[in-house]
Structures are given as C-alpha cells and as structure tokens.
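Q: What residues go here?
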C-alpha cells in the first residue's frame, strides 16, 4: 500500500483529499500545516511515497515545505494543489525535483490520476 502525506490548512479540503485517496486504497497521513507535516515526515519518512501540499498556507508556503522535505528524501515526488497560485510560486517549485500541480477545485478523478502519475514516475514537472 502506498502512503501519501497530505498537507492543507483548510480542514474541509484536507478531509476531502483524504477521503478520495483512502477510497482508492491509499494510506493517508494528514497534517493541518507545515509544522505538523515536518513532524509527521521526520517520524515516518521511510513510509511516505508522495507529498501533496497546498501552496498557499499561512505558516509557510507549500513550496518551502516541499523543499525542506525533499532535502530529507530527494526521491520524494510532490503534488501541489492550490486555488491561488502565481508564476513565481511555480518557479519556486521548479527547483524541487519531481513535482506536478493541479488547481483547486479539482475532480476526484483528476486528483487520483495525478497521484498515480506521480507514484509511477510518469508525472511531468509542470
């Protein structure tokens, strides 16, 4: 079973992504913010196959969080989700490694397809 760490400061969005992925057979760890995500990752980094992070969060941007976690595991693929994103934030993501982006709101099938691409290594840097 593949394990995904999902980070989003919006509780409803976090629960929605968790529900969609668990119904597709994924194990899902959740964090309501970057600080909690770092704690989860430090304790479970060997188990985590993918990071899904909102880009815009109050404590720290998802791109900064991903950069920290990718330093700990350079093979970690990252899927960014956001309703509000600028070209500058996408440029920041470019240095992270294997990443993709989907815009909120998204259909469950779009999320699952993006996750499968990232886990199989067929995702593209966007």
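A:
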């Amino acid at each position: 079973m593949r394990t995904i760490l999902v980070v989003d400061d919006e509780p409803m969005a976090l629960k929605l992504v968790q529900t969609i992925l668990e119904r597709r057979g994924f194990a899902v760890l959740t964090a309501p913010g970057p600080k909690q995500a770092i704690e989860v990752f430090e304790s479970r980094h060997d188990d985590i196959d993918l990071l899904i992070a909102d880009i815009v969060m109050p404590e720290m941007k998802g791109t900064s969080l991903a950069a920290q976690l990718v330093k700990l595991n350079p093979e970690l693929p990252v899927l960014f989700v956001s309703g509000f994103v600028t070209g500058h934030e996408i440029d920041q993501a470019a240095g992270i490694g294997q990443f993709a982006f989907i815009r909120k709101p998204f259909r469950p099938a779009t999320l699952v397809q993006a996750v499968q691409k990232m886990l199989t290594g067929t995702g593209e840097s966007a």
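A: Context that may help when evaluating the design: The CA atoms of residues 79 and 115 lie 7 Å apart. The chain has five helices and five strands.
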